Amino acid sequence: MIKRRLYAAARLLLVAMALSLGAVSPALTEGKPRLEISESDFSCIRDMTPVRGFFVDSLTGDLDATLAVANSPDGGAYPPGSVVQLVPTEVMVKHPEGTSPATKDWEFFELTVSPEGSKIAKRGFVDVNNRFGGNCLGCHAKAKPQWDMICETGHGCDPIPLTKAMVSVIQKTDPRCESMPALSTEEKQLLGQLQQLLR
Ligand code: HEC
Which atom from ligand 1 is nearest to the alpha carbon of 138? Predict the structure, then answer.
């Protein structure tokens, strides 16, 4: 009986040691917790919660905390677990504090999306580029500090070459969504232009 308890204690100690070394869980780097994120965490952009022109979600189930910052007129730091998207193929996810000071703990993702779902083409912190060769951090770091690297318009970032109408059509035609809202004639024309642009 005592022997069994000793074994159990020894096993616990080993697990604790392995955890503190980051040997057991790849989610722990230098003892700092990281969120495990995989392609199944991303799906139809319109199932997320709209905030002005972009969408947010929470991987830790605390959407209210994410929305509080997104809707604050003074900005603030997004809580860990926050997911932010403007277009289906580009995502920012907030990790726990200390994960990546250079990016204020944001991880950048470039996805390829299809009716089958999302594939992660690129992910990382300082060195992720979008499909046009632009470095995510290079632009997003220019947002004034109170906006926590969220660009929108007027936060200090260099603009992207997409109008609000183009962004809206791209959101409406996310191939991962089960249904597609009807497009107006203008939107159909815009979609054609965008497809030419991305070819
Ligand atoms: C040329 C600069 C530039 C590059 C490069 C860039 N972005 Fe952005 N991004 C912007 C701007 C500007 C906006 C806001 C556009 C708007 O709301 O009209 C934006 C919007 C976003 C948003 C919505 C939240 C916000 O900041 O407004 C996300 C998420 C995002 N980008 C992720 C990425 C990711 C991931 C990459 C790299 C794969 C990337 N961006 C590359 C400039 C850039």
Answer: 5
Phi, psi (degrees; rounded to nearest 5) at 177: -80, 145
- Give the residue extent of every domain in the chain: 1-33, 34-161
What Cα–Cα distance (Å) separates residue 93 from each residue in 61, 104, 123, 178, 188?
14, 11, 10, 24, 31
Q: How many angstroms does the Cα of residue 64 sit away from the middle of ligand 1? A: 23
Global pTM reads 0.86
Pocket of ligand 1 (CB under 6 A): 53-54, 84-86, 90-92, 108-110, 128, 130, 134-136, 139-140, 150-153, 157-160
Residue 47 and residue 174 in contact, taking contact as beta carbons nearer than 8 Å: no
* CA dihedral (97, 102, 104, 107) positive or negative: negative
Say how many Å lie between the CA of residue 181 and the centre of ligand 1: 24
Give residue for tokens 């040997």.
Answer: 23
Which helix (H) or strand (E) segment is 191 a member of? helix 185-198
Q: What is the pLDDT of residues 70-109, one digit of tens each?
A: 999 999 999 999 999 999 999 999 999 999 999 999 999 9
